[in-house]
Every structure is written in C-alpha cells, then in structure tokens.
Amino acid sequence: MHRLEGALRSYAWGSRTAIAQLRGLPAPTAHPEAELWLGAHPGDPARVLTDKGPMSLLELVDSEPERQLGTRSVETFGKRLPFLLKLLASEEPLSLQAHPSAEQAREGFCRENDAGIPVESPIRNYKDASHKPELVVALSRFQALAGFRDPQRTVKLLEALAVPELQPYAGLIAGQPDSDGLRALFTTWITLPQPVLGALMPRVLEGCINYLSNTKDGEFAAEVRTALELSEVYPGDAGVLAALLLHRVTLEPGQGLYLNAGNLHAYLHGMAVEVMANSDNVLRGGLTPKHVDVPELLRVLDFDTVDIPVVEAEQIGPRGEFVYSTPAQEFALMRIDLSSEGLSEHHLDSEGPHILLCTSGSVKLHCGSDSLELSQGNAAWVAAEDPAVEVTAITDRAQLFSAGVGVQIA
C-alpha cells in the first residue's frame, strides 16, 4: 500500500477552485483544473510514493504485473491496469462526445497507426486500442446531457419552440420517430453549411427565449435553458442544436451516470468521481475548439433511444457501504460513508488492485504492518499482493471511494 499522487490536467472547461479546495490547496488556481488522473494511463500516469522516492504507477505495473495486478486481472486484461479513476470538475460544458466500442477502438487505432498519424497529434481520434465505458458519480449537483430521448418527445419540444424554420427538420423525425429518424436529423444538423446554420441559430434561440418567457417552468424549461447557455459559450455551434435531442440529466450527490459505447453525451457543470476503462478515446461532435471528426462520430454513435441512465448506489452492508452496478468488466466502484454514529470501520478485500480516494473528512488505512492517513483529496494504491485493508474514520464523517477491477473476475 502506498500513497498515490494524481496527475493534474488543465482544460479550459475546468474549475479554478473545486479540485484545489477538495485537496486543501490554495484557490483560485492560476489555471483551470479539470481532471485529476489516478491511474496508469500512458498519457498521464499517477505517481506512487515509495520509500525509494516517487515512481510512475505505469512503470510499477510494467515492472511486476502479477504482483501489482493479480493473476486474474492479467489473464483477462493483460499486463496493464484495466481502469482509470479521476476527479472531474466542470465549470463550463465539455464537448459533445461519444466513445467507441472495443472493436471500433481496435480498428480505429490500427487505421490511424497505418496512416502514420502520431498518437499525440491533435487530429488523432484513437489514442489507444481500448473502448471506454465510464461511470461518473456526483460529489456536488452535477448536470449533463446523455442519450437520445424518445423522438416523439423531441417533436413535441421542437413544436413548443414555435420556430417556423424548424418545421422541415422536425418533420424528419415526426415522419419517422425511430433511430433512423434521429440519425437523419442529427446528421443533417451537424453537417449544416455555415450560412444555413448562421441563419437558423438566431431563430432557434429566439424561440427558446420566447418559450421561457411564456412558460418559465414548462415541460422543456431545462432543455431550453441549456441550449441558451451552450450558445453563449459556443455561439453558432451545431452542437447546440444537437443538444436539443438529448436527455437533460441532473445528478444529486451520490448518484451515478453510466455511459456505454456510442452514447452521445456532454457533461455540463459540477464535480464528480469518474471511473472508466483505461482509455482516452473520444469522438467529438461539437461544443469544443478541439478536433471534430463528424464522419467518425457518426460511425460509432448509437441512435437507439434510452431512458435516463442514472445509476443509484446499492447498499451492500448494514450501514454505509454502497456499490454502483454497471456491465463494465474493467472496473467496479464502491462508496464507503463513515461516521461516528454509523459505520466507523470498513474491511476492504485485497483481491485485485484498488485505488482508494478520500473525498471528505479523513481516514486511516491499515494494511498488514503498514498504515497510512488519507485526508480529503488524497489517494492510495493497494496492490493485488497486499494484505486486506482496514479503513477507520479519523473525523466524525468521512467518505472514501474504492475503484477496483470489475466484479466479474474479482
């Protein structure tokens, strides 16, 4: 067991206060802090603080995979940590995006390698050969767009805006209210010539303003406000139109959102813990200054409508132990709420590797003869070979997340 020092990523959409304050560091920061990576991704591995000094977690895993990962994980996923844990803080919206399936990722990665596109190139779509199912769990109220809503409700939304210029587009799904109709409308909007888009957008935004003026708390108020907010950050972006096709999701602290391959989504605002397969593959469709590859995005998108994919924590112990069930094999996530009047100690099974992240209060970890204190914002690496870990609350209340390999092989 060792303390783990995350790799901080700065993106324009990040927060100058949220991650720093959680870690007990001065805020505001000089640059927006968007993500703290706690894992062994080659793009930005975390550092393990050993008696011999800091060491990249990637190098540690590479040097002794069986001892660090365990036999079952190596047999299933190879000699690499299969998951990546993050702290995420969004002050502004992230790009409209989706992730590829495992087969699409392998094919795309090989294709771009054969084309001679450097992995670090800004026009590269596939940074690795892995898919990227992901689970985000809110630490604060967390806002997102995720998954295509029922086409008939989208027709109702477009009609409620009362914009004559929208009628031909609404007709694309009114006449075919299924995944094919959604594909036709999304493809049309995302590929509109700039002069057409430039003429349409002001009329749509005017319709949004009129809708809120007439029905401030109407059925589609949240979706309409989101379109207006997105247009302020990304004026004239076709992604604003595409956002009108998606579920508007609000997560309260402790609730999760699971996103499988092909699910179009955008995180809008809030702070969360995020765990995913160990990949950085993103296909963007708008709301970003970064590389957008519309044909490749259309190749991976799933246009089937879905219910709002909120994941509620399932209590597994008598008091403060919760798990977030997903179909992902690469990761499993547990939340442990400790308090003086409830659960004050927790026994963590040593099967497989774990990354532990304290998100509030302070805890003490006991692992064999070793012990380690974690205050909020601190993390620890527990190797597969390590003994079981006992977690004890130091403060009256504390919260710890434990990320490990999926329950299917643990």
Question: What's the topology here?
Answer:
Layout: E1 2-5, E2 7-9, H1 18-22, E3 35-38, E4 47-50, E5 53-56, H2 57-63, H3 65-69, H4 71-77, E6 83-90, E7 96-98, H5 102-114, E8 134-138, E9 142-148, H6 151-160, H7 167-174, H8 179-190, H9 194-214, H10 221-233, H11 238-243, E10 246-251, E11 256-259, E12 265-277, E13 283-286, H12 294-300, E14 310-311, E15 314-315, E16 321-324, E17 332-339, E18 345-348, E19 354-360, E20 362-367, E21 370-375, E22 379-382, E23 389-393, E24 397-404
Antiparallel strand pairs: 1-4, 1-22, 2-3, 3-6, 4-5, 6-12, 7-13, 8-11, 8-12, 9-10, 9-12, 11-14, 15-16, 16-17, 17-24, 18-23, 19-22, 19-24, 20-21, 20-23
Helix pairs in contact: 6-7, 7-8, 9-10
What's a concise summary of this model?
This protein has helices spanning 18-22, 57-63, 65-69, 71-77, 102-114, 151-160, 167-174, 179-190, 194-214, 221-233, 238-243, 294-300, and strands spanning 2-5, 7-9, 35-38, 47-50, 53-56, 83-90, 96-98, 134-138, 142-148, 246-251, 256-259, 265-277, 283-286, 310-311, 314-315, 321-324, 332-339, 345-348, 354-360, 362-367, 370-375, 379-382, 389-393, 397-404. It is an alpha+beta fold and 410 residues long.
